[in-house]
């Protein structure tokens, strides 16, 4: 039976857990399955989930949110102009991004596949696809 989440609490004991991707934590409506096999639905509007949030089901079952790993690309640049152009292009697509010194980290997303494919042909860019915990630059991602 699918459980409806009736509230989100903090600092309480949770019997169960669920790992969510970066995108799942940002969804206004979420359906997922916990580690113990509890299917649940959450409708939260514009509020985002965070690691450590505890979801309380209508039957009292508690599920703590854990950050899951995501498929990410790390782009390391040798040429600053290409670095700047790529950051601009990714930003224009409203994708979450982590910008560091001559390095960009992005989540794998279909809207970025053409950019990644192009960068893989550039000798001055090192593209690495991996699985890891994604952290964006603060307040970089928004919705309209």
Could you explain how this protein is built, in words?
This protein has 144 residues and is α+β, with helices and mostly antiparallel strands. It has two domains: 65 residues, HSP40/DNAj peptide-binding domain; 63 residues, Alpha-Beta Plaits (2-Layer Sandwich), CATH 3.30.70.790. It is 17% helix and 40% strand. The protein contains three helices and ten strands, in the order ββαβββββαββαβ. The strands form two sheets. It has a six-stranded mixed beta sheet. The protein has a four-stranded antiparallel beta sheet with strand order 8-9-7-10, covered by helices on one side. The two termini are 34 Å apart.
CATH architecture of the largest domain: Sandwich
CATH fold assignment of the largest domain? HSP40/DNAj peptide-binding domain
Oligomer: single chain
Report the CATH C-level class of the largest domain. Answer: Mainly Beta
The parts where pLDDT drops under 50 for at least 5 residues are 140-144
- The overall average pLDDT, rounded, is 92
Q: Helix share of residues?
A: 10-25%
For the secondary structure, the number of strands is 10
- Give the end-to-end Cα distance, rounded to a whole number of Å: 34 Å
According to CATH, the homologous superfamily of the largest domain is: Urease metallochaperone UreE, N-terminal domain
Number of domains: 2
């Amino acid at each position: 039976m699918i459980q409806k989440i009736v509230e989100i609490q903090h600092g309480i004991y949770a019997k169960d857990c669920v790992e969510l991707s970066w995108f799942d934590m940002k969804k206004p409506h979420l359906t997922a399955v916990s580690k113990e096999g509890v299917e649940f639905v959450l409708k939260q509007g514009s509020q985002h989930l965070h690691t450590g949030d505890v979801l309380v089901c209508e039957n009292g079952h508690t599920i703590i949110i854990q950050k899951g790993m995501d498929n990410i690309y790390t782009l390391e640049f040798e040429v600053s102009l290409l670095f700047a152009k790529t950051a601009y292009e990714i930003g224009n697509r409203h994708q979450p991004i982590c910008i560091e010194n001559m390095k960009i980290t992005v989540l794998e997303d279909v809207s970025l596949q053409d950019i990644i494919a192009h960068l893989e042909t550039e000798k001055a860019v090192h593209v690495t696809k991996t699985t890891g915990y994604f952290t964006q630059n603060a307040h970089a991602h928004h919705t309209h």
